[in-house]
Amino acid sequence: MEKLHYDYAVGLSTPYWIQEVRLKGKLYWSFQTPISLPFIGIGLVSGILIFLLIVNPLIFILKEVPFIPVALCTVVPWKIGKLYVEYEPDGKKLHHYLYGSLRYLKDFGWDSRAIYGQQRRKEVEQKIVFEKTRL
Fold first, then answer.
1. C-alpha to C-alpha distance for 94 and 79, rounded to whole angstroms
2. What is the CA radius of gyration of the chain?
3. Which helix (H) or strand (E) holds 20?
4. Exposure of 42 by Cβ count < 10 A (0-12 exposed, 13-18 middle, 19+ buried)?
5. Which of 26, 40, 98, 121 holds its CA 20 to 30 A away from the CA of 91?
6. Which residues span the membrane (predicted)?
7. Residue 125 lies in a domain
8. Are strands 17-23 and 114-116 parallel, antiparallel or unpaired?
9. CA nearest 45: which of 15, 6, 80?
10. Mind giving me the DSSP string for 97-124?
11. 102 in a structural domain
12. 81-131: pLDDT as tens digits
């Protein structure tokens, strides 16, 4: 009988989910449904960036309408995190898709050298002179 080996790739590619936040046995926070760790990470990073780049410089304008900074720092990062976790273009995770798109742009969009013999080479401009010959 042939021995079957377990494929660990399935288990390693699944996201890490969080439902309870506990420290030293004490429950600090509990979510109704489990939330993936990348969702929390991307949400926090985008929230901090929005606060530092948009809300902080425009605080004198935004203090007239108090709900806009709250919406910018909570709703927008929530949507960005949800988009990052749930949207899979071409069946890939979003960061793999963006990395591949940027590599494609770098290799084929911005590099105008010709590919010859599986290498990038500059085209040498040679002046071609046609001479008239008598036969």
1. 14
2. 27
3. strand 17-23
4. buried
5. 40
6. 35-55
7. no
8. unpaired
9. 80
10. HHHHHHHHIIIIIS--PEEETTEEEPPP
11. yes
12. 988 888 888 888 888 898 999 998 988 888 777 777 777 777 777 888 888
Tell me the residue range of the domain where 49 lies.
8-113
Find the distance separating the first CA and the last CA of the chain, reported in whole Å.
Answer: 82
| Number of domains the chain is built from | 1
**Nearest partner of 42 among 86, 100, 99, judged by Cα:** 86
Tokens for 107? Answer: 């290799």
Residue 131 inside a domain? The answer is no
CA gap 74, 68 in Å, rounded: 10
Residue with tokens 């898709």: 97
Examine the pLDDT at 74 and tell me if it is beyond 80.
yes
Rounded (10°) CA dihedral 116, 98, 90, 18 = 150
* Cα 105 to the center of its chain, rounded Å: 15
In this structure, what is the dihedral angle of CA atoms 90, 95, 100, 102, given to the nearest 10 degrees?
Answer: 130
CA gap 83, 47 in Å, rounded = 14
Contact yes or no for 75/69 (Cβ under 8 A): no
